Amino acid sequence: MPKFYCDYCDTYLTHDSPSVRKTHCSGRKHKENVKDYYQKWMEEQAQSLIDKTTAAFQQGKIPATPFSGAPPPGGAMLPLQTSVAHHVLECCQRPLWAVLQ
Ligand SMILES: [Zn+2]
């Protein structure tokens, strides 16, 4: 009969049967280990996210204040958007001018 290995407790149960597993998993020690395991995992995830964000910032991939309402990076797009806006504006106003003239 194979032993049951508990990842959280980093230990083997001497007998692998549903009742032994259930007893182990409802134990206080196991629950603490599960809590620690996920806490550590979340801290690692958060830390790696912080590291990635910091690295991206240092490489200039993201602006220093992404939520300040400043225009997005990539200024080349801006003149195009502006000219499109003017064009749309002209198209819309032309019939009105025609009426007035
Ligand atoms: Zn366990």
Describe the structure.
This is Matrin-type domain-containing protein. Keywords: Metal-binding, Nucleus, Ribonucleoprotein, RNA-binding, Zinc, Zinc-finger. The structure is a single chain. By secondary structure, the protein is mainly alpha-helical. The chain contains three helices and two strands, in the order E-E-H-H-H. A two-stranded antiparallel ribbon has the order 1-2. A hairpin with a 4-residue loop joins strand 1 and strand 2. The longest helix is centred in the middle third of the chain and has 31 residues, at 28-58. Bound molecules: zinc ion. Residues 6, 8-9, 24, 30, 33 line the site of zinc ion (ZN).
Keywords:
single chain, 101 residues, mainly alpha, two-stranded antiparallel ribbon, 3 helices, binds zinc ion
Overall morphology: rod-shaped
Q: Report on the biggest sheet.
A: 2 strands, antiparallel
Order of the strands making up the biggest sheet: 1-2
Q: Low-confidence spans: pLDDT under 50, at least 5 residues? A: none
What average pLDDT do the residues reach? 77
Tell me the helix content: 55-70%
In short:
With 101 residues, the chain is mostly helical. 62% of the residues lie in helices and 6% in strands. The site of zinc ion has 6 residues, from helix 2.
Helix/strand layout:
Layout: E1 4-6, E2 11-13, H1 18-25, H2 28-58, H3 77-100
Antiparallel strand pairs: 1-2
The chain binds zinc ion (ZN).
